[in-house]
Structures are given as structure tokens and as C-alpha cells.
Amino acid sequence: MTRRREEVKQIKTSVGTCSITDEESMVVTLVKDSDFEEHGQIFQSTGVSIKSLTLKSSPDATKEPDWNCEQAKQFSLDIASLLPNLESVTFHNFGMHSDSIPIHLLTSMIQTSEARLKSFHLNCVCLLGSHKEIEEWASAIQRQKHLEYFRISYCGFSTTVPSSCTLHPIIKALSSLPNLKSLELWSYAEGRLGTLRDHSLSRLLQNSKTLTALHVEGFTLGDEIVSKLATAIRDNTCLQKLDLHILKEASSGTLKLAKALRHNNTLQALEIFLSNSSDAPTADRTSQPQQTTSGKEFLPLVARALSSNHNKSLQDLRIHCYQKVTQVEEEAFAQMLETNHTLEFLYLSGYEGDYRPKIEYFLHWNRRGRRPGVLQQKLCQRVAHKKSSQIKAKEHGNSEDYNNHAQRKHKQRQERLNRR
């Protein structure tokens, strides 16, 4: 069977490069200001068939165009007008070493476009703008009713952006979209994309009926925020993957999050980076940080919530924290896996205790789709069959002949099962 090779057409300009794959995907490398005008001309000849557009800086990430020039404004309008079938837009590695990307360019690109965008991704991008420009960007996003994937990965606001600017208008706009499937908000440093002090995330989980994946990283999530998220997760019926990183200043909120897993039966993958303020590593590495009361209760609560009588959907669980898992917590997860037949992967920070072999054993059989309870039941059936054969052998005169006959019958049954 031959593998189909994708045809890639390279269009080299005087300073940048444009790659077109299968006449549907275009990757544009922008190095200088003149690239904007040259690639705008390329859009006029090939833009009708383009569905995926990726804009990236030079490989060494030191040469970037000036996004505040007039050519950049015209370039954003060219994308909106000359690519009518565009479905996916990606910005990669801009503004981290030089001038930031003005938010109003993203607004004009989306607002004036007639295309039905399904994916919008900013990766390693530094943004520049005011609170009013963020609200205008949110209004433009709200009009994209076909948007399914919205990702801000390892991004941040410029240092000149006021500290009061947040992503709340963006999250509010996304909560009204009827087809949103995946949302990623990832700040490259804590506070670089503002704060999440209101309940916009919890309202998003409550309102959206299509969101299946949520990733939040680089934000300080307080106790009240996590509590509202726990309530939304408990009642949510569509979310399948959840990544929550850096849950600081949260004690009772994390306990509510653990209890929420008892009632949620759609979540399949959960990753939590848990670090309370008192859990931070000390300067002396030999001294162990004291574990808070909420930290001691969190893991056992999660284990009880994942018993077979409650959660039956979670397959992948990863919990990161500064403290190593205690033997009591390992025992709680080992007991949970005796009845839980769904969980296939489990990561706990530094669990190397006596219960790890038992945990790995049950996870192994869960991944193979064979339940340890069924295996134990078959073993009991074989033992009962052996005892029954011994009793019948005593009732017959020639027990040796009967035993040989029983062994042949058993061997024939095993061969039939193996052939199946």
C-alpha cells in the first residue's frame, strides 16, 4: 500500500516564504514590512481555495515586521476580503521579541471577513491594546457563529497594556457561540493575560452545550472562582477534557471540585495542578512543606468520587502537587480501583509506596478492557468445577477413569475456546 504524498508549492518572495499544501493550506513567513504587500498579491491569485492560513515569524524569532505600519493594516483587510473560504487562522510567534500585535488588527480581520471561521489560534503572541479594543474584538468573535476552536496558547499582553485589561469580554462572547468545542486560555506568565476574578468561566460551562475541552493555565484562581467552577462542572453534561493549572489560594474550592466528580458522568480526562499558598517549596530542600488540611482531604475525596457507584466516565486523571502522595492516599486509590473499571491512566505526584503495584495492576487490566472482577469470578468458577469433579469421582466406582474422562472433556472445552 503506497502512502500518498502531499504536494507542497513554495513561493519565495524577496524576504519571506509562502508554502501552499494541496491548494487549501497556506503557511506564510513574515520577516519584514514589505512581506505584507507581497503576500497580499499572492492572496489575489490563490486565495479563493485557501481554507487554512498560518502566519509565523522567522525561524530565529529575531526578525519580525512592524505590525503598526500601514502595510499591516492593509494585509489584515486582504485576509478578510481575498480569502472567502478561510476556516482556520493561526498566528505563531509574534511580538515576543519586538513590536506586539495590535488587537484592532485581529478585530478588523474577523469583523470584515465573509468566511466562516471554525478555528482561531494565537500561539506565542504578545498583544497590544486597550480595554475598549478587547471589547470590540469580543464583539467580532461573537459574530462568528461557526467558530469551534479558540486557543490562546502561551500568550500575554504587552507591558504597556493597563493591568485592568482582562479576557472577560472574550470569554463572555465565546459563551454565546452555538458550536464552540474547545477553549484554551494559557498565559505564558502569571497575570500576563490579566486576572479571572469574575465568574465568566463558570457561566461559560453553564451556558455552552457543545464545549468538550477546556484548558486554563497561567491564572490565579481563587477559592470563590474554583467553587463556582466546581458547581458548573457538577452540572455539566458535555465537557470531556478539563485542564486546570495553578489553583492558588483555593482550599474549600478544591474540595468542592473533588466532590463534583461524584456527579459528573461525561468528563473523560482531568488534569489539575494544585498548589496552595502554603504548599510552595521552601528554600531548604531537605525540609518538607507542611500539607494543609484541604490538601490532605482532596485526594481521598477524589478517590471516593471515582468509585464504581459514582463516576463511570473518567479515563485519564493527572494530579500535580508539591507534596508527595502519602501511603494513606495511595491506599484510597488502590481500594477505588478494585471497583472502578473505567480509569486507565493515573498520575499522582511521586507515588512510590507499597500500593503502587496494586494500582498499576488494576490500571493495566482496565486498559486491556478486562475487569479484575470478571477474572476473579472465572477463577472461582474453575475452583467450584474442580470440587464438583472430585465429588462426582467419589460417587463412581472407578474414580481414576472418571478423572481421565473429565480431564479430556476439560481439554476439549479449552481447545474450542482457544479456537474462538
TrEMBL record:
Region feature Disordered, mapped onto this chain: 385-420
Gene3D superfamilies attached to this UniProt entry: Ribonuclease Inhibitor
InterPro entries: LRR-containing_regulator, LRR_dom_sf
Basic and acidic residues composition bias: residue spans: 392-403
Keywords (A to Z) from UniProt: Repeat
Protein name as annotated: LRR
